[in-house]
Design goal:
By secondary structure, the chain is of the alpha/beta class. It is 41% helix and 17% strand. It has a 7-stranded parallel sheet with strand order 3-2-1-4-5-6-11, sandwiched between helices. A 4-stranded mixed sheet has the order 8-15-14-13. Strands 7-10 form a two-stranded parallel ribbon. Helix 1 packs across helix 7, helix 4 runs parallel beside helix 5 and helix 6 packs parallel to helix 8. Bound molecules: NADP nicotinamide-adenine-dinucleotide phosphate (NAP) and ligand G4F. NADP nicotinamide-adenine-dinucleotide phosphate (NAP) binds next to helix 1 and strand 5.
Length: 357
């Protein structure tokens, strides 16, 4: 019998939200998955908890800031597909660290593309581009919408996006940009607004937090589920020709609406009073203030409205999202409720033990 060789995928940013969903997706498809982990940080592998022992998963030390480490990994692995998900991915933080963000997100991508060109030019390359590229261009945004970055994060991602197109045109590399609108999950980092909200809603419900502080409530985003979006990444690399595709749900909601939807999952109705930075969200039943504005959480320059048109991905790739906004938020709140209750139980046990001692 002829032995079949498994396809090899290399993922940068494997310990992030998308990295963990993509790893599971590719392992289920029978790939050998290799991941690059910066600083070999063991505690960052938490999101990979359910696949860490998988025989087809291998982690390598490497850093987007260190070209030699990328060369070493590519030389060792000789991947068929490369998914470049590594990034300093927080838009707000990029205003505090523009140079670092440019180095990881922009130059890091150039380093990886150059390593691929030299060491495995027949591999296929996926770049994690972002709807942030469009800045405040009017919604809905599609592949041909003007790109007007509003943050150091978006500027660095625009450089990376262009380098992918340059590699494609100059060297005929199979390199594609996925221009992804916001996608979330229970594994989302706690600094992003969806997870910050769902975690706070759960903690407020179980009584371990009193109030949720937020910045711009008027910003609108097109929020989908990460599991749907990693499937789209893979679909892009199965095409004969490389190209750029938007993945989006086509629906947008304000941060204010997100807050209402998340509290509704735990049967709390929020009513709003006051304007601008004086705005407050109260529990309709008790009148207690549960949400208030913190001016420090506003960005120097925010993107007001992102809502994507994913017609091209639908028509060419046959991609469409399966999880609705309401189901996404319910899943996130329910998962955070589980954690919040576990933490509360653990705190009670410690307190009892301390009192008994
Ligand atoms: P994430 O959870 O923040 O994950 C980012 C990953 O990059 C982490 O594994 C992180 O590792 C790694 N990383 C950071 N600096 C690195 C470095 N110098 N060298 C190697 N790895 C490094 O982000 P995500 O939400 O999964 O997003 C994945 C990618 O898609 C990112 O490029 C993001 O910018 C882009 N994107 C995301 C969205 C979205 O809505 N989620 C939308 C559009 C585009 P450590 O944690 O160990 O630092
Ligand atoms: O959740 P966010 O931090 O996500 P943002 O800035 O849209 O970026 C995410 O999506 C991009 C794709 O469009 C990715 F490229 C990027 O890597 C990242 O995954 O903020 C969403 C909105 C913003 O307008 C922000 O000003 O929520 C507003 N917001 C209001 N209060 C807040 C808060 N954002 C955060 N993080 N924390 C707040 O307290």
């Amino acid at each position: 019998m002829k032995a079949t060789t498994l396809k090899k995928a290399l993922i940068t940013g494997i310990t992030g939200q998308d990295g963990s969903y993509l790893t599971k997706f590719l392992l289920d498809k029978g790939y050998k998955v290799h991941g690059i982990v910066p600083r070999g940080e063991v505690e960052c592998k938490g999101r990979l908890f359910n696949v860490l022992d998988h025989p087809h998963l291998t982690l390598h030390d490497g850093d987007m800031l260190d070209g030699a480490s990328l060369h070493r990994v590519l030389m060792t692995v000789q991947p068929d597909e490369i998914y470049n998900l590594a990034a300093q991915s927080h838009v707000g933080f990029s205003f505090h660290a523009p140079e670092y963000t440019a180095n990881v997100n922009g130059l890091g991508t150039a380093r990886l593309l150059e390593a691929m060109r030299l060491l495995c030019p027949n591999a296929r390359f996926y770049q994690a581009s972002s709807s942030e590229l469009f800045g405040n261009a009017p919604a809905p945004q599609c592949e041909t919408t003007n790109m007007v970055p509003c943050s150091p994060y978006a500027a660095a991602k625009l450089y990376a996006y262009s380098m992918v197109q340059i590699a494609r045109k100059s060297y005929k590399l199979h390199a594609s940009n996925g221009i992804l609108f916001n996608h979330e999950s229970p594994l989302r980092g706690e600094d992003f607004v969806t997870r910050k909200v769902t975690k706070a809603v759960a903690a407020i419900k179980v009584g371990t937090q009193n109030i949720l502080e937020l910045g711009n409530l008027d910003a609108r985003r097109d929020w989908g589920h990460a599991a749907d979006y990693v499937r789209g990444m893979w679909m892009m690399l199965q095409q004969d020709q490389p190209d750029d595709y938007i993945l989006a749900s086509g629906e947008s909601h304000s941060v204010r609406y997100l807050v209402e939807a998340a509290f509704k999952v735990v049967n709390i109705n929020i009513t709003w009073q006051g304007r601008f930075t004086e705005e407050q969200g109260r529990d309709q039943k008790t009148g207690k203030v549960l949400v208030r504005i913190n001016r420090d959480l506003y960005r120097p320059n925010d993107v007001h409205h992102l809502c994507g048109d994913a017609s091209k991905a639908r028509e060419v790739l046959g991609w469409q999202p399966a999880v609705s906004f309401d189901d996404l938020i319910s899943e996130m709140v329910e998962e955070d409720m589980r954690f919040a209750l576990q933490n509360k139980r653990a705190e009670t046990i410690i307190l009892k033990a301390e009192n008994a001692a």
